[in-house]
Fold these 2 entries.
Entry 1:
Amino acid sequence: MQLETWLVYVLAVIGLSLSPGPNGLLALTHGALYGHRMTLYTIVGGCVGFVLVIALSLFGIGALLKASLFWLSVLKWVGGAYLVWLGIQIWRSPPLGVPAPDAVVVAKPGSWLFRQGLLSAISNPKVILFFVAFLPQFIDPSRSLLLQFAVLAGTFAVIEFSTELLVASLASRISIWLARVGRRFNHCCGAAFIAIGVALPLRG
């Protein structure tokens, strides 16, 4: 993968990690309820789930490419349209927030938190649709698919882990901030996805 392509991917993944989604909300909630150290289990579970979904999506796309490179072009344009649609949904979504607990919070074991993060990542069909739409923009059919998987999945996992850990560590402050400016924040994230969906298929 060329450095220029990887940098575009990094910027896109940062935008995805910062945008509203089930795992971000879970990290925010668990950070507020159980503290950022215990939420590490949630975050790691989510990252493992995302890597599994990336593997399924990328190797499924790879099998399709073996049949015809024409489908890479089709996937890019369909994927771009999906990213635009996703941006519109994010633009219109309500701001994230963490409701104050009504009762004393009971501590949960790390395995339970890990499982919650994992299931949140793999049980949402929108996640699979996103990666099927997103990954073809960065695949080079002439290079090793396994190596590209390592780069794409590894980069995504590191950025997602860092972002969710930051969210969990600052849960109480971020929740207050999102309640105040969350809708404008969603507008910025949504606009970014619309721009990505329009621009990426136009790249060579």
Entry 2:
Amino acid sequence: MKMPFRAIARSATAVPATLPLRSFERQIGLLALATMFFLALMQPLSAHEFKAGDISVDHPWSRATPAGAKVAVGYLVIRNAGSAPDRLVSVTSEIADKAEVHEMAVDANGVMTMRPLAGTLEIAAGDEAELKPGSYHLMFMGLKRPVKEGEAFPATLSFENAGTVDVEFTVQAIGGSAGHGGHDGH
């Protein structure tokens, strides 16, 4: 039997709307592959976020210190998802004798100053506080060991309402900005 040319052309270009999977095992394999891919993508996102109560701490990072340095700096973002303000009341780390929240400011004469924050750092309800170069930041003083690029170090942030949050600071290059820009002289 001879088919007309139009019928041959139509059958040759017809593509099924969906390609059926041949077996249950193949479906399970594809699901497992998709799950592993999803988890691999999520790992970098969750690895730098820490949480307690309504407080979350995102992307803690520091700069490597030169040989003999006695201070290191720390940056991060604190988010308060609660309906009431919370306050960062203290910071501790095994790498330093003492840690404080510091504030950089420019006075009326254009002189930049850095000093410990008097009191606590308040994070308003539904707001965030970004500790970044040229602004609020953490100072780790009396370093017990150098802070080296590519390493990480732990710290504990204590909040008035949320309690403690254990975080890990990743260490960037001495002049690194971890995507935050600016330079604070540390």
